Structure formats: C-alpha cells, structure tokens
C-alpha cells in the first residue's frame, strides 16, 4: 500500500497525489491519501483535490499509523521510532527513485519533480479536470482565451510578501518574459492571473494586449483558465507550475523564473528542462 500525506495548498496537494498514483501504477498496488493534516492546517483553502474528477480513497487511522507511526515533527525528521515504511523526502525537487522500491510506503514530502509522474501524464491530465462546470464569468474568459493566442501570466504576491525566503518576482522578470513571447508568438494576448490584480494594473502598463482575470470564483477556475492558454509565464509557485504543466498545447512555450526561491543555497531546480528559465527577483 502507498499512503501520501496531503498538506499545503492546491499545487502541493497535486504533487503529493501524483507521486502516489505513479508509484501505485508502477507497482500495481493501491494508494490512499492521508488528509488528517487539515484537521489543524488552516492556511489556503484546505483540502481541494475533491474538486477534480479523480477517484481516490482516504487512508484510515489504523492504516496511517501502521505505515507512518507516531506523528511527531522531531521524530519524523530524525526518523526515530518510525516504521521502515515511513519515507521523508530527502531533498526538495531532487528525484529519488528509492520511493518506487518499497512494498509499503508512507510518503511525507512535496515531491516537486515531474520525473516522479511523467510516465502517467495522460492519466493525470484526466484526473485534474474539474468535476463541476465553470461559473458563467469564467466560461466567458475561457472562450476569450481559446479564441486567441493566449498567454497566461501568473503573479504571486499576497502571502509571499510575508515570506522573504521565497521571494517576489520582479517586474523586470515579467518584462523580459513578455518580450520573449512577443518575439515568438504571433498576435499574443496576455491574460493576467494574480492574488493582487490592483498591483498588476499599476505595474504592467507596458502590456498593451492584456486582459486581467478578476472574476473567477476560485483558484480552481484560475487553474482551468491558465492551463487552457497556449503558452504560460509562471510565477515561483507550485500552483503556477501546474497551470503550465497541465497545458496540453503541443507547441506551448513556458517561461519560468530561474531563481525559484530567494534563499536556495543548494540550487534546487523546480522547472522541467523543456521550460525556458529567466532570472531576476525583486530586491
């Protein structure tokens, strides 16, 4: 059995689901999710995978305990008093093929590397379809996107302003990314997604072919709209990452920040090799 700990916002949850399904597929085994973190985790919007068309089982308390043992932050980190099935991610974004060799495994980590699940991409594209209709306003935005050479531009601010270790991407990053797209895409139309649209309107006056997405009812609708664009300019966000990765346009161009985290002493790399990386962080 494979059990994956689900925690964090929507993007993180999608990574944690994807690796579990991938391992289960390779091993012809079952996988379940441990969502008990949301009994105390109050950030973002809680557990969100139930908004997709995927079918999944939630792990029972005894199953979680058998594979994870006691849930203690210190013991987890030091691996004290933990069953052999408990597996804490060793290094962020670094592919670790050992996770595929366990008969039973409890996955505790973020697993932000497409190598874990690239082989089941087709299946994940189906799984991560919304199970409800878009709102009328989001549907109107979708029609606008599909009738153009749409390029999503994601700007993450808000909560990131309180996390200097993550960092805010500079306006220069977006200027350079947009100029690159203009040189590659005929008649580009830029669609701005952000948790700070007023800031974007104030700082993105240099974009002439622009539509600000302001009336989506949730981040789920934003994700659906972002992945429907032909091309993507992503922020340093797992949510933004999935918006681009789920884009199934064959000739898509994805631009991502080279410096994903402001503090990244080990130079971890979040972007797939097929994406174009541009540097710059806001000072």
Automatic annotation (TrEMBL):
Matches recorded under PANTHER family: GALACTOSIDE 2-L-FUCOSYLTRANSFERASE (PTHR11927), L-FUCOSYLTRANSFERASE (PTHR11927:SF9)
The UniProt entry, under InterPro entries, shows: Glyco_trans_11
User: Which superkingdom is the protein from?
Assistant: Bacteria
* Pfam families xrefs: Glyco_transf_11
A GO cellular component annotated for this chain's UniProt record is:
membrane
What is the taxonomic lineage of the source species?
Bacteria, Pseudomonadati, Campylobacterota, Epsilonproteobacteria, Campylobacterales
Which GO molecular function terms does the record list?
A: galactoside 2-alpha-L-fucosyltransferase activity
What name has this protein been given in UniProt? Alpha-1,2-fucosyltransferase
């Amino acid at each position: 059995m494979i059990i994956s700990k689900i925690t964090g916002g929507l993007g993180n949850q999608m990574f944690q689901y994807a690796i579990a399904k991938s391992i289960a597929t390779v091993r012809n085994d079952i996988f379940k999710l441990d969502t008990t973190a949301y009994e105390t985790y109050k950030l973002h919007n809680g557990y969100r995978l139930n908004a997709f068309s995927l079918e999944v089982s939630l792990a029972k308390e005894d199953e979680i305990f058998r594979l994870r043992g006691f849930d203690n932050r210190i013991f987890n980190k030091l691996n004290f008093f933990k069953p052999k099935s408990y597996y804490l991610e060793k290094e962020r974004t670094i592919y670790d093929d050992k996770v595929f060799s366990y008969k039973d495994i409890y996955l505790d980590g973020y697993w932000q590397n497409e190598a874990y699940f690239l082989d089941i991409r087709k299946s994940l594209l189906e799984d991560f379809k919304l199970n409800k209709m878009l709102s009328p306003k989001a549907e109107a935005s979708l029609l606008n996107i599909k009738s153009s050479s749409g390029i999503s531009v994601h700007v993450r601010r808000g909560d990131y302003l309180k996390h200097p270790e993550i960092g805010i991407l500079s306006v220069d990053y977006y200027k350079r990314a947009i100029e690159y797209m203009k040189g590659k895409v005929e008649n580009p139309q830029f669609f701005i997604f952000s948790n700070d649209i007023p800031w974007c309107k104030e700082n993105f006056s240099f974009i002439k072919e622009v539509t600000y997405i302001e009336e989506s009812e949730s981040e789920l609708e934003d994700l659906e709209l972002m992945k429907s664009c032909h091309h993507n300019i992503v922020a340093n966000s797992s949510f933004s990452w999935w918006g681009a990765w789920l884009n199934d346009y064959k000739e898509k161009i994805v631009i991502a920040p080279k410096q994903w985290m402001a503090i990244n002493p080990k130079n971890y790399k979040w972007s797939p090799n097929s994406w174009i990386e541009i540097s710059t962080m806001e000072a």
